[in-house]
Amino acid sequence: MPYVKKISIDQLDGMTYTPACDVVEVTLASLRATLGRLDGKVHTMAVLGGVGEDWPKLTIGGGGGTYIVMYTRNGPDAGWWDLVSDGKPDATRSLVVGGQEGDYPLNLLNGSDATFRAAAHFFETGEMSAGLTWQKG
Q1: What are the Cα distances from residue 109, in Å, to 33, 70, 106, 115, 134?
Q2: To 5 degrees, how large is the angle CA 101–CA 104–CA 105?
Q3: In tens digits, what is the pLDDT along the chain, a chain of 137 residues?
Q4: How many beta carbons lie within 10 A of that of residue 80, not counting itself?
Q5: Crossing angle between the packed helical segments 112-125 and 28-37, to the nearest 10 degrees
Q6: Is-contact 47 7, C-beta < 8 A?
Q7: Is the separation of the CB atoms in 35 and 66 below 8 Å?
Q8: Which residues pair with 80 in a beta bridge?
Q9: Can you tell me the distance from the alpha carbon of 36 to that of 46, in angstroms, rounded to the nearest whole number?
Q10: Distance between CA atoms of 61 and 102, rounded to whole angstroms?
Q11: Contact 31/119 with Cβ under 8 angstroms?
Q12: How far does Cα 17 stand from its chain's mean position?
């Protein structure tokens, strides 16, 4: 039984920003489709999670093959961790996340493959993938 029970994606329509539209069918296929909808323009952020207040979440922002991925959890081990790549931490690139444009260090920008691997592992387990590199925020 997968950990993820809810997938939400934002939507930007001109100047109107809708923070979360829930994906009706939560499957690995709908997760892949949701990530494919992230385009950095109309859809700029997706959130994956379980149920309740204290569950870990995985937030994915950006689109078009470039993403930031952040794992968060509440409780005694509360905090957040960013999925990191081999990009330079002192160089930045502009990316739209959650409807807002910002400059992000290149080491926080990930391609489609690493992003989907992180999302698929989280989908099944609710945890960060040990096969990827995470940095505590």
Answers
A1: 20, 11, 5, 9, 12
A2: 170
A3: 889 988 999 998 877 878 777 877 889 999 999 999 999 999 999 999 987 666 899 999 999 999 999 999 988 888 999 999 999 999 999 999 999 999 999 999 999 999 999 999 999 999 999 999 999 99
A4: 15
A5: 140
A6: yes
A7: no
A8: 72
A9: 11
A10: 11
A11: yes
A12: 18
Q: Please report, as a single letter, which amino acid is at residue 71.
A: Y
Lookup: tokens for 99: 């409807």
Tell me the C-alpha to C-alpha distance, in Å, between residue 135 and each of 12, 24, 82, 113: 29, 32, 5, 18
98/46 Cα distance (integer angstroms): 9
Look up tokens 């160089």; give the residue: 91
Q: Hey, what are 51's tokens?
A: 């149920």
**Going along 3-132, which residue ranges are E strands?**
6-13, 16-22, 45-49, 57-63, 66-73, 79-83, 92-97, 100-105
Does the pTM surpass 0.90? The reply is: yes
